[in-house]
Structures are given as C-alpha cells and as structure tokens.
Amino acid sequence: MTALRSLFQPMAAKHGLGAACFIGVAVFIWVVFLIVLPQISMLDYSFRLNLPKPDIGGPLDVYTLDNYAYFFSGNDGQLNTLDIGILVKTLVAAVFVTLIDILICYPIAYILAHSATGVAARLMVIGLIVPFWVNEILRAFAFRVLFGATGLINSIGMGAGFWDQPIDFIRADVALYSGLTYAYILLMVFPIFNAVEALDRNQIEAARDMGASWWRVHWRVVLPIAKPGIASGATMVFMLTAGALAAPQILGGPSNLWFTQLIYQWFNESANWQRGSAYAVILLLVCIGFVMMLMRVFKVSIGEIGR
Amino acid sequence: MNKGTGGGAIAAGYSLLFFAFLFGPLIIMVITAFNSSSFPRITPWECFTTEWFDELFGNERLMAGLVNSVIIGVGVVAISVPVGLAGALALSEVGPKVRAALYTVLITPILIPGVVLGISTIVFWGGLGRSVGADYGSIFFDGMFLTLAGQVTFIAAYAMLVFLARLQRFDPTLTEAALDLGATPGQAFRKILLPFLSPAIGSAAFLTLLASFENYNTTVFTILSGNTFTTTLASKVRHGTDPSLSALAVIIIAVTLIGAMVHEAHTRRAEVMRTGQAARSKVYGNPVLSVLAHPVMVLVLLVAMGGGLAYKASQHDARACKQQILDDKRALQEKLLEEQRERIRAQKAATPAPAAPSSGPAPSSFGGAFNPGSLAPGSAPAPAAPATPKTPSGFGGAFAPGSLKPN
User: Fold this and answer.
1) In this structure, what DSSP letter does residue B35 have?
2) 10 Å Cβ neighbour count for A271?
3) ipTM of the complex
4) Residues of chain B contacting residue A289, judged by C-beta atoms under 8 Å apart
5) Chain-chain contact of B121 with A38 (C-beta, under 8 angstroms)
6) Model's pTM, two decimal places?
7) How many CB pairs below 8 A link A and B?
8) Domains plus CATH for chain B?
9) Interface residue B218 vs chain A (CB under 8 A)
10) A83-304, which class in CATH?
C-alpha cells in the first residue's frame, strides 16, 4: 500500500488530484479486469471438466488435467499426432512467414530510410499504410480472387501455356502463406525503418570508402543497427501469424488446419469451452516461450517492442 | 534517390516490385467488382456492371453488422483513448524498475493472440456473471459488452503507444514553469499537457476506431451469437464468394484514398504555414490554388468526383451486354452440341453397320443391359452410344459396343 501511495503522490503533485485519480483508476481497471483476471480465469477454466449446467459448482466440479492430457494423448492413450502436428505445422509456418517478411521488408525499410528522398519517400510511406486500412478479411479475399481455380494467376498461367490444368493454390497453401506474408508487412517495415533510420549515413559512406562491398556494408554496419527493429518486427509478425484466424479460415486448404482453427472448433462446434481454453493456454505458452527463447538468442529485450 | 547510400536502379526496381505486391491484389479485387461474372474474376471479362453495389447494400445482415460495428467502434474509442492516455502518463511518471514491469504488462495484450484474448474475456465475464447469479440476459453474457471489453484490452495499448511517442517529445520544464507561475497542478495538466497531446489524441482515436472496426480474431469469440460487420464479412467469404465483396472493397479503398489525400493536403499546408513560406510557395502564394489546396476543398472536390463517377456508373445499363453474353453462351453451346452431333455422325459412318448387334452376345452377367445398342437396336444412332467408351466407367469400357467390334 505504501508503495502504491509513493507512486500516487508525485503524480497528484504534478498533475493534480483529479488527473492522478483518473490515471490510477484507469490503469488499475485495465491491468486487473481486462488483462490479468481474464487470463487467470481462462487458466482456471482450462483445468475444469466440461460439465452440464446443474453440475457446475457441485461435487463433480473438480480440477483436472484431462484437457491437457487430451492434447498430448487423445482419447485412446496414443500420442495425439493430429493436434500436436497441427501445432508444430502452425509454428513452422509462422516462422517461415516471418522469415519471408524479414527478407522482403529489410530492403524496403533501408531504401525508405536512406535512399528515398522527398516526394518519393512520402509516397512510399502513404503507399505502405493505405493497404492496411483495408479490412483484413477483404485482403484475404483479394488473395482468394488472385489464387482461385479461375483466378488471375491460373488464367494467365494457363493462357501462356505454363500449365494446362488449374493449379489448386488454396490446397497447396500457397495462397495462405502469401496472404499471411502480405497481412503483416507493415508491422515488419516500420520497426526496421525506425531502427535503421538512426544509422548515420557517414558510416555507410566510410565503409564504402574503405572498400567494403555492398553485402559487407549491410552485414557489418547496417544489420547490427537494424537488429532490434528486426527482432521487434519479427516478434509481432510471428505472434500475429501464429494467432491468425481469419486468413487460415479463408485461404487455408480444407485439410490443413491452423491451430487457432482447432481452438475455434472446440468453442463453436464442439461447445467444449474448457478444452478450448486449454488449447488457447497451450498456444499462448508455446508462442511466448518461443519468442522468449529467440529474444534470448538474439539478446533483445521486450522493452524494445512497440511502434 | 540518394546514390551515395545505395539508391539507383536496383533499389528503384525493388521498390516497384514491392509496391506491385502490395497493391496488385487490391487492384485486381477492385476490377472484379465491375465484372458481371457471378464469381469474382477478371478473365473472362463479361460486362461492366454496378449491380454488385446494389447487392451489397441489399445485404441486411451486413448492414445490421455495420450498425453494431459502429456502436462498438465508438465505445472502444471513447474508452481506450482515455485508458491509453492514463497508461502512457503512468509509465512516464513511475521509476525505471516499475516502468519496465508495467510496460511489459500493458504491452502484452498486443502480443497475445487475439483468439486467446477473446476466450479469456468471455470466460472471465461469464464466470463473474455466474458467481453473482446473473442470468443469460444480463450484461455479462451480452455480446456487445464483451466485445467492448475484449477489444479495449489490446486497443488501449495501441493508443498508449501513440501517446508514449508524443510524450517523449514533451518538455517537462513547461509544466514546472506553469507551476512556478502559480498554476495548480490540475490547471497545468489541462492547460499545458493536454493541449500538447491533442494531435496524438486525434491519431489515437483514428487508430483505435480502425483497429476496432476491422478486428476479427477477438470479436468472433466475444460477440457470441451476434454479428459485427467484420464477422459477417468473414462468414460470407467462407461460405462462397461473390463480387459484392469486391464492391465493398472498392468503397473502402475509395474512402481510404480520399482520407489519405486529405490528410496529405493537411500536413503539407500545416508545414508550409509553420515555416512561414506560404507567401513564397507557388501553390500557397496563389489565391486560387491556395483555396484549392485547402484540405476541406480537397475533400469536397474528391467526394464530388467520386459521387459523380458513382452516379454515372449507376446509370450504366448492363442488361443489353448481359443478354449479349447469354446469347453468346447459348450460341457456343449450340455450336458444341452441333460439333458433337457431327462427330457422332462421322463416327457412325466409320463404324460398320452391324456394330450394335455384334455386341449383343456380351459375355457378362449383366446380359448386355449396359450395351447401349440394346436400347436402340440398329435404329437411329443414339447420341450416348459413341460417347460410352469415353466415360471412365468402372467396367473399363468392356460393355462398350466398339470394344467387341471385329475389326
């Protein structure tokens, strides 16, 4: 309590009692009722059984590991290869999408920060932002139009004689990966841009004058500066891709599920909220664990994340 | 382009490719909105039409969802902008250690998958509702309220980031000066800090409205049995697509572009005014051009232009062209049929006359029941008969009359 008061008093002295009360109450409600308690109750829920309504709170309502056990071993005690496989596939695909985004966005962020000037730079910034004002669903829909069996790519490919049967890009997940790559480009460009912009141009020119080749300049001078930006962008892209629901639902092949779709099925089709919660907890823990591990590997802290 | 730091042809080419990837899908989608083909596509082009816009506005579920989305969006802006402001102010006041911890807590909702946020929200409020004995009609099970709660959780963090960026440039000595001159802390807050933050309030409000409007992952859980614009859209896309969605995209993109241009006009004007070069500038020094370049004028002009185009397009009658397409299709069908008949006739001519009877004694348990010849014994050529060998039947064409033909 004294700790809280010591936080509160300087604020009241600086901004006035009303403002300090407002800040305190708003942050308290936000942290407790919107962030912490919901996560805790989801965790609690995931350890419970899916009981009919009269039994809730009764003697049957006990804590159990059933929902987690189901994820690992299914109903029959065998290894639940289906669900585990989907989780692994989701993570691998998310890593893949993140890597592609880094590859695509690093050059554009560098160009934006150091090569483009004046009107070109302004236009580029607008051009980057405008597509992301379009609804996420519609962006996925655009890729469906592009990659469908009668879509533009198939008609061009067949018209030019590259292939004579329509290729099912949706089933092959090409559409899904392109759509996901597209969806989070902005979140990758701006962190890298912010980081690279801090670089003094003279350093690049000095390196050039000393005779360094282009890839060497990037590897030794630009990349170390860009690293926090890349880490921050990669974290966001990875988390959002792994947690994406709309794009896999719209662009995913019929037999290829994303892990979030499994969670969605437990909630909306099987009406088993407890098991859905358990799967959500698993997704959360695995994603956070994965990101923490990578942050440790690349020596970046979470404080550097944000736009 | 600045050559010294790696501009030049490669950079320009790469940028072009990059923006082609960014805009290509959107442009294609926009074009499909005007094709009369009932599946969204460019090739084959059928007719220019605006009927998909009518269909879009006639979609009642989508329009009902739009109303819900607007209500939720306004609510989210009204809550998350002040909450985000509070978070940013709290972060700028506390010590470094508390700051790091609080920042981590407040920023995690952005990183947590939206699905998880949605689930935790409905589970928490549902549990709270049950523990106070509320029934299912109460606020704890109301999709609109839950969506509001779930969205504010992470959208407030967006607003916070906007305010934090602005606060970094705030000079705290301004507040101190106000206090020294006898202002109360409350006055200093209202007269110094809030006006300084007001541009950030505008952009935070815009960002939060946009984020709320297009959120799907959280909303699809928290809205329960209700609908917002985005969830309706998603279910529509999942259950078959038609170009009315492209029409929607056209509207959104048009609004976006107009917004971007007006914003650009506004920032340029503000910049020129601030640096005091208005009199010398070509555009802003000229009285006519200066009025034309005013953001409001830009908005009016663009809206008028868009409205004019929309009106002109809505007068376009695609019926004649569609009839033409239909006729063409019918003609093509006729032609194909005719060709097929022609082929049949040719085949018939090449086939020796006793072909059908020869297949009579087929050594099969079906007793030749599958033999088309038995249905049309030697008379006029049944159209299906020659086609039979082509059908991938499980009998491998063994029952086809031709297969036993002694030639």
Assistant:
1) B
2) 10
3) 0.84
4) none
5) yes
6) 0.79
7) 294
8) 62-242 (1.10.3720.10)
9) no
10) mainly alpha
